[in-house]
Amino acid sequence: MSLHLTVHRGTRQIGGSCIEIVHPDGTRLILDAGRPLDAPEGATGLLPVSLDLSQPATVLISHPHQDHYGLLHELPADWPVWTGAASARLIAITSEIGHAPLSRPLRTWSSRPGPIRLGPFTVTPLLTDHSAFDAYMLLVEGADRRVLYTGDFRRHGRKGRLVDALMKRPPRNVDVLVCEGTNLGTDKPVMSEHVLEDDFVKLFERTAGRVFASWSGQNVDRTVTLYNAAKRTGRTLVLDLYTADVLDRITEGTRVPRAGFPNLKVVITAGLRGWYAKQGREDFIVRMARHGVSAHDVPDDAVVMLRRSLMHDYEKAGLAPTKADAFNYSMWRGYLAAPYHAEPLLWCKSAGAEIAYLHSSGHAAPEDLRAFAAAIAAKAVVPVHGENWDMQTSGFGPVQRLDDAEIWTLP
Ligand SMILES: [Zn+2]
Ligand SMILES: [Zn+2]
After folding, report:
1. CATH assignment at residue 321
2. Whether residue 3 has pLDDT greater than 80
3. 169-201 tens-digit pLDDT
4. Cβ-based neighbours of 200, under 8 Å, separated by 6 or more
């Protein structure tokens, strides 16, 4: 009697992750319920058709990226959903701002969780390094088998030491490693946040005016990197209300910068202020205004967060790029195909500002993926969350290549 494992989606694609593990007694765990990255906006009915919704199951969300949790609202309302405590708060923020507040409760574990008993399963979330804050690998034990699911991870971010420590003392006798492979067969930039910080310092030093920057407000590692570089060059990092809200809700008790820190200001823009007021968050606006600056008063040497949704308010207040300024795009360059990402860059470019692309991937480098698989030394490696696995399986040990929806019985 063994476990059954099904990758409902993800054996040949990035995103839309959904993996099921079934115990011989019929108890089911679903690891992630992600939205496919290429799903059109507003599309519904996106759950994999192979996922049986007629029987109960427990869901575990590895981290707060939509390609891992974005279909939660399509799951039966009585299925319990677990995730990290900060992940739950980040999911709530994204759902609110996306005008689709999540109506189901999320059960949470703390950032250093112990094993969680779920019927015949024991699940141990292992905090890991990823561009999402509060990301976990999941060790699932049941029926005398052990499955380690990596979720999304990297080794070169500010929590890379956690991955190194796991590789040094891996869980013993892992039967199956379900491994992500985002960066296999790509040449995405992979450098530590410390190296990136030095590159930002150089950009900030050679720029006479302001530095506009686009990055994900939920990529807390990147906010820290930009903040450190701003501090080292005597500049002020100016965050929008949304990013200030993210930090405010998840970084209490940590050393992560937030409103109130030196060299950090929150720009109070009409659009976002109105949105937060509509949410009944006047307290938050008042609190942020204490560390706030109007778009009109943003200092000439600031490092300023820029997104398309801020451009209008900035322009109206006279905060616009000039040729003395620079713009840095700090996300995956593939996103620039969308106007939402391209427009801020073009706005700065047409003003004559220097355009830079300082960025580091949120996912592990191919050599780190292989080193991780070697350290875990599982009896089988199941590839997920990658587009190039078929050409890249060498160096991963015994690979069990599955198709989406294929039911595999662990040996
Ligand atoms: Zn992902
Ligand atoms: Zn992710």
Report:
1. 3.40.50.10710
2. yes
3. 999 999 999 999 999 999 888 999 999 999 999
4. 225, 226, 229, 328, 358
